[in-house]
Amino acid sequence: MRQSPIVQRLTARSVGIALTGLLIAGLAVFAGSTLAAAHSGSGMKMSATAGKAAVGNTRGWYEGKTVRFHYTKNFFCRQPPASKAVSHCELGDNYQRIPADEFDPLYVVVPLGFTPRKTTLQCPTAGRCVDHPHRIDLSRVFGSGTGNTLLPPHSHVVSTAAGGDPEWWNVDVVGVTSRTAWHRIVKGKSYDAIQRMRTHGNKHVTTNIPTNLFLFFSVS
Q1: Which of 36, 43, 120, 171 could pair covalently with 213 via S-S, beta carbons 3.0-4.6 A apart?
Q2: Cβ–Cβ under 8 Å, residues 107 and 174
Q3: Residue 34: helix, strand or coil by DSSP?
Q4: CA 106 to chain centre
Q5: Predicted pLDDT of residue 53
Q6: pLDDT tens-digit readout, 58-100
């Protein structure tokens, strides 16, 4: 469980943010069709404080199993960092404001440059997932023209079930740039599977890329 003060959390994540900078050029090359399909200049607008929370479910992966995430509150994104997205959500920089003193990490796994089988995506439609932001600013990682992009299709991994209690989860993004690496994660269904690939030097799985996005759900 991550706890106050905020300074401690920022320090713990500073190394990851620095490493993220090294990934920008490579990720921009691999983004290709995924972001092209997700990006659009119009669509639903939802701010961090506007819109009613929906009650609904998605799937997630935890310790080798498929579990259920039950959502009962809308997402939380606050500036700073500055965001061009209508949601105020930002990829590539750390949160500075939090919705609660305690929360856990959620790893959002995003395919880059290829389209996996829809059955392996827990939020398969760009910009459409229960209590997620409709749009997010990707420009710190992917450059100009991606400041108000539909949230890309993705899947979820957690490293704790938090006792099954509903709580806030801060999103770290994991980019996956090959089908083989993606299928290993799908098979492993755990954060340990991602970490093992990194330990063995798999270049098709990025480091954790920070966001200021929080989601609220329970795991069962």
Answers
A1: 171
A2: yes
A3: helix
A4: 7
A5: 85
A6: 999 999 999 999 999 999 999 999 999 999 999 999 999 999 9
3-state secondary structure string, 101-142? CCEEEEEEEEECCCCCCHHHCCECECCECCCCCCEEECHHHH
Q: What are the tokens at 18?
A: 């620095």
CB-based contact 108:159 (threshold 8 Å) = no
Q: Where are the domains of the chain?
A: 6-40+51-219
**How far apart are the C-alpha atoms of 106 and 171, rounded to whole Å?**
5
Backbone Cα Rg of the chain: 16
Helix ranges (DSSP H) in 39-135:
none
Using CA atoms, how far residue 49 sits from 9, 104, 170, in Å, is 24, 22, 17
The phi and psi torsions of 86 (rounded to 5 degrees) equal: -65, -20
Only one residue has tokens 């704790």, namely 160
Residue 65: what pLDDT? 98
- From residue 145, alpha-carbon distances to 29, 83, 140, 211 in Å are 15, 13, 11, 18
